[in-house]
Amino acid sequence: MQGVVANPAVAPVTRQVSGRAAPAAVPSGPERGQPLAAAVAELPVLDASGRQVPFGALFRERRAVVVFVRHFLCYICKEYVEDLAKIPKSFLQEADVTLIVIGQSSYHHIEPFCKLTGYSHEIYVDPEREIYKKLGMKRGEEIASSGKSPHIKSNILSGSIRSLWRAVTGPLFDFQGDPAQQGGTLILGPGNNIHFIHRDRNRLDHKPINSVLQLVGVKHVYFTSRPSVIHV
């Protein structure tokens, strides 16, 4: 039987064993209802100007849907964030929820990525991937069927070609993050409360947006199935 691995991103929990307190095993899967470790909440993310912000400050006083993406050149991430951009701010305000995207590139890539996707909600980067690591985000791809995503319009060939084109025509030839890093989705706050966590097993394993919005009481968003304008 596979052993349970403690996750350093979650604050330790104790249980009673024979009249004494002992550390409780923390599941390696989703940790709903458990607090985020203070050391993780204190790790910095960077905004578009390079200003450091403690990760925990993003949701200290509010609920937040936090989406970690693979890297900014990933065509799947681009098209997923294009749909995140279509969520009306009024829908989020009515539910008293904020939407946050976190990437793992240099902060210099934030503004061009937002222009490319039309994304105007909050966005930060974790260039050293410290938060990705502490949250147990997978590196490498697990071979698993993730089904057809309602958010991805390109096939693997056309999408990969456009990603490569953006890499070679950019001011610096880089992949704007570790190409092997996977992302995930969390619902956090207020405080260090984890209400939901999903770690992507591969590039297509992101959660459908409306399924996440439903968990925080945000109204259903109708995403068009028509191909978007192609940016290269």
Structural overview:
There is one protein chain. This protein is of the alpha/beta class. It is 24% helix and 18% strand. The protein has 7 helices and 9 strands, in the order ββαβββααβαβααββα. The protein has helices at 38-41, 75-84, 89-95, 110-117, 130-134, 156-169, 209-215; strands spanning 14-17, 20-23, 44-46, 52-54, 63-68, 97-103, 122-125, 184-188, 194-199. Strand 3 (44-46) and strand 4 (52-54) form a beta hairpin. The longest helix is centred in the C-terminal third of the chain and has 14 residues, at 156-169. The radius of gyration is 18 Å and the shape is globular.
Please state how the strands of the largest beta sheet are arranged side by side: 7-6-5-8-9
Number of strands: 9
Average pLDDT confidence is 79
- Class derived from helix and strand content: alpha/beta
Biggest pleated sheet:
5 strands, mixed
Number of helices: 7
What's the alpha carbon Rg, rounded to whole Å? 18 Å
Distance linking N and C termini: 48 Å
Order of helices and strands: EEHEEEHHEHEHHEEH
> What would you call the shape?
globular
**Portion in beta strands:** 15-25%
Uncertain runs:
1-6, 12-30, 227-232
Helix fraction bin: 10-25%
Quaternary structure annotation: single chain
